[in-house]
Hints:
By secondary structure, the chain is α/β, with parallel strands linked by helices.
Amino acid sequence: MTLTVGVLGYRFMGKAHANAMARLPMFFPDAPEIERHVLVGRDEAALADAADQLGFETTATDWEDVVDEVDAFYNLGPNHVHAEPSIAALEAGTPVLSEKPLANDLQSAERMAEAAESAGVPTATAFNYRFVPAIRYAKNLIEDGELGEIRHFRGTYMQDWLADPEAPWSWRNSEEMAGSGALGDLGAHTIDLARFLVGDVERVSGHLQTFVDERPVEGDGDETEMREVTVDDAYSAQAELEGDVMATFEASRFATGHKNDHSIEIHGSKGSLKFSLERLNELEVLREGNRGYETILVTDADDPYVEHWWPPGHVLGWEHTFVHENYEFLSAVDSGEAYHPNFADGLAVQRALAAIQESDENGEWVAVE
């Protein structure tokens, strides 16, 4: 059986997922056979070009024509369009992968999770960093007790693409379309890794900051139109994870010199580990009895996912995380088995995001419920 896939969105994430689908049959021979069936967007000319480039059979300008005609639906649009197409697909019994954060507000995320539970089909929230081999290696170390009792989690996600105040406005600067800024866009990944590796977030104390209040809109006119920035440029939060684990989260789009640095540290009673996305093939591990960290190159054939790729030392990259993610999700669609991170996981992260925003507004610790 060939699974037909429909994808809403053909820019950054559309390319990442289409590239992953194209690689599956070459590197994961046990992956289900798929057809990149239909690509959905609004601009017919741009859509046709994208479909040709990304290998899709057909195009559509209305997601309502697609969601009940494919075996899996990928919602890769801006955050404010995650809810309605995803819910409609689920009501038609179609498995859905949605980009993160799950939605642009908690109420929409709750509706999506409820629809997923009612549908009883696989769903995915696209937290692709769970599928970095070094992160899987770290999870195995933690579950095997190598770090002992976990006491601290520190997570930061630093970028600098908005450090220039003349950088153009985009939908990511709009509360209506994005819900939040660095918090939802970057912090969602960090919070998901905290849940994946350590445990649920139980309470938070947050601080959000906007450094540039308006930005120019790209256009061809003589006069520069300025548009208000209504989301945060950076956030920080203290948190308590289950098991009395202390945690700190932080993200910024103003961290000059950082391009895409998602870093975590986990400290336990017997050892510690450190990871940075900018060196994603490496994991630094401190084991009990050692005086310093050792750097482990996670590229051996017996490391998670690596048997499908290259000889040891021939490193993987950011795009490979999407191959692993698509392999796991589409295999779940094919078999009907459970998949994680699903919409329930996405909702749990969304609740933490909402609590951090609430804490910033009222200046108090907020329980994540």
